[in-house]
Write a structure and sequence with these properties.
The protein is built from seven helices and eight strands, in the order αααααββββααββββ. The chain is α+β, with helices and mostly antiparallel strands. It has an eight-stranded antiparallel sheet, sandwiched between helices. Helix 1 packs antiparallel against helix 2. The chain is globular and about 45 Å long.
């Protein structure tokens, strides 16, 4: 028998008035409401459903266990470096001898030579060294390894993988290059302040010699490569390597 029927029967059995009828109807309605609420709970006190249709889900409440911990998001933390940046950061401060001093040492070790290349290297157990190349007028390259911490140089050795054409091409580049390696480096650092980690003589597509200069900025350990015309010191290209 539903609530409406109970109200009708009560009215027919008693004649106490509208107030009694209203009281009985209210009690019946309350009982039906409690029965409906009981069907939405699991067995056991306090175990409220938490499925997709539950009040907790509808309210958007987050699970405390799934909350993201304070700090940076998943992945590299703020201020971290790439592998190349980390290597520069570890190596460059160890080099107490600058690139130009290393070149001067190499040039003094090979009489009547001109600079061809210099590069900071840390493959010797992490110890910084300058790998330098200087060449005589006929294009023969001599390599000289200079300790970047002490300035001490190894004995010069002739580069073995040069053939006659290589020597001829290099000799031609050296004749055309009126700008020195040091001047090219000064041009590069005039554009971007930093530490010179490499200078190398090369040529452009049209055969004009150029210097490729690497400058490392110690604020972020990025490397910027400048191609500098070896005849007029004009910057031909500038590229920032953030890897």
């Amino acid at each position: 028998m539903d609530t409406k029927s109970k109200c009708v029967v009560t009215h027919s059995m008693h004649s106490t008035g509208p107030r009694a009828i209203g009281l009985v109807c209210a009690v019946a309605a309350a009982g039906a409401l409690l029965a409906g609420c009981g069907s939405g709970t699991d067995k056991g006190a306090g175990n409220v459903r938490s499925g997709p249709g539950s009040p907790a889900a509808a309210s958007g409440a987050a699970d405390p266990a799934a909350a993201t911990p304070s700090g940076s998001p998943s992945g590299s933390p703020s201020g971290s470096f790439t592998e190349d940046q980390a290597q520069r950061k570890a190596l460059i401060p160890k080099a107490k001898v600058s690139y130009d001093k290393a070149l001067d040492t190499a040039l003094a070790a090979v009489p009547k030579s001109k600079a061809v290349a210099v590069e900071l290297d840390g493959n010797d157990g992490g110890r910084p060294t300058w790998d330098t190349e200087v060449a005589t007028a006929d294009g023969t390259v001599h390599t000289v390894r200079v300790d970047a911490a002490s300035g001490k140089a190894d004995k010069p050795s002739v580069k073995e993988d040069q053939d006659k054409d290589d020597k001829t091409q290099l000799a031609d580049q050296l004749r055309k290059a009126t700008v020195t390696a040091q001047q090219a480096a000064q041009t590069a650092t005039g554009k971007t302040k930093g530490t010179v980690s490499s200078v190398e003589l090369d040529d452009t597509d049209n055969g004009t010699p150029k210097w490729s200069v690497d400058v490392v900025t110690t604020s972020d350990w990025n490397k910027t490569t400048f191609d500098v015309d070896a005849t007029n010191r004009k910057i031909l290209r500038e590229h920032v390597d953030k890897d």
